[in-house]
TrEMBL record:
Residues 4-104 form the CoA-binding domain. The keyword Plastid does not apply. The active site is at H251 (tele-phosphohistidine intermediate). Its EC number is 6.2.1.5. It catalyses: GTP + succinate + CoA = succinyl-CoA + GDP + phosphate; succinate + ATP + CoA = succinyl-CoA + ADP + phosphate. InterPro entries: Cit_synth/succinyl-CoA_lig_AS (IPR017440), Citrt_syn/SCS-alpha_CS (IPR033847), CoA-bd (IPR003781), CoA_lig_alpha (IPR005810), NAD(P)-bd_dom_sf (IPR036291), SUCC_ACL_C (IPR005811), Succinyl-CoA_synth-like (IPR016102). One of its GO terms (cellular component) is cytosol. Keywords: Ligase, Nucleotide-binding, Tricarboxylic acid cycle. It is an enzyme of class 6 (ligase). It comes from Streptomyces klenkii. Pfam families: CoA_binding, Ligase_CoA. This is Succinate--CoA ligase [ADP-forming] subunit alpha. Belongs to the succinate/malate CoA ligase alpha subunit family.
């Protein structure tokens, strides 16, 4: 099983013909992702060859969906044009839009997030500023390295791309049902809670690892959700125990003001919900192993 992405997912890439889009389309194909097209209005009607796999380019998301049955789009469009790309995906009602682009203005992210809601949330947005998601052995939509883990029984949801990769590597012998990088911007689409609910409903996910970071109250809200709705064991890690107060750290959303949003406050909220929280990624991996008896 998996959440949000399976071997049957038909993936298109907005921005496929750019340098970043080309690089990661090639890697996604190598991981077995069923990529059925790219989107670039200026190159519509052409094809791009990726080591013998020919991928057609369409003029719009709607055209790509009509011609291929695509149900996932991965967005590699530069920040200035990303809002328009996501709005196009929402208008086409594609079920899943994975927005990899970093540096999108918060106002733009808020606008397309609100626009998705006004359209009935028919399009699930993951990101922006995220590594995407992977269901090992089935499909990879984004930039997560496909060779660092295997299919297994752990579900992972993380704000941080780098920590996603590290946790997958630390627990590679057990493997993952799916790993979802939700991004660290102040405004994102899919949240920890959305992923926790999906992993709770997935019969093959036995344990959930949740990675948060300083700033905001997403982890505290996730703790409340876990306490009320999650029956599976959850292990957590919060990045930023040594971060200085009042300073933005890497991710635009990782800023602490006063006592709210600190790693310690988040750790305490999660532990009160029964979540075991590691002080380092490696300690968190050990806690996951112990919870699974592995």
């Amino acid at each position: 099983m998996a959440i949000f992405l399976t071997k049957d997912s038909k993936v298109i890439v907005q921005g496929m013909t750019g340098a970043t889009g080309m690089k990661h389309t090639k890697l996604m194909l190598a991981d077995g992702t069923n990529i059925v097209g790219g989107v670039n209005p200026r190159k519509a009607g052409t094809e791009v060859d990726f080591d013998g796999t020919s991928v057609p380019v369409f003029g719009s998301v709607a055209e790509a969906m009509e011609k291929t049955g695509a149900d996932v789009t991965v967005v590699f469009v530069p920040p200035a044009f990303a809002k328009a790309a996501v709005v196009e995906a929402i208008d086409a009602e594609i079920p899943l839009a994975v927005v990899i682009t970093e540096g999108i203005a918060v106002h733009d992210s808020a606008a397309f997030w609100a626009y998705a809601g006004s359209k009935g949330n028919k399009t699930r947005i993951i990101g922006p500023n995220c590594p995407g998601l992977i269901t090992p052995g089935q499909s990879n939509a984004g930039i997560i390295p496909g060779d660092i883990t295997k299919p297994g029984r752990i579900g992972l949801v993380s704000k941080s791309g780098t920590l996603t990769y590290q946790m997958m590597y630390e627990l590679r012998d057990i493997g993952f049902s799916s790993a979802v990088g939700i991004g660290g911007d102040p405004v994102i689409g899919t949240t920890h809670i959305d992923a926790l609910a999906a992993f709770e409903a997935d019969p093959e996910t036995e344990l959930i690892v949740m990675i948060g970071e300083i700033g905001g109250d997403a982890e505290e809200r996730a703790a409340d959700f876990i306490k009320a709705n999650v029956t599976k064991p959850v292990v957590g890690y919060v990045a930023g125990f040594t971060a200085p107060e009042g300073k933005t750290m890497g991710h635009a959303g990782a800023i602490v003001s006063g006592s709210s949003g600190t790693a310690q406050a988040k750790k305490e909220a999660l532990e009160a919900a029964g979540v075991k929280v590691g002080k380092t990624p490696s300690e968190t991996a050990r806690l996951a192993r112990a919870a699974l008896g592995a």
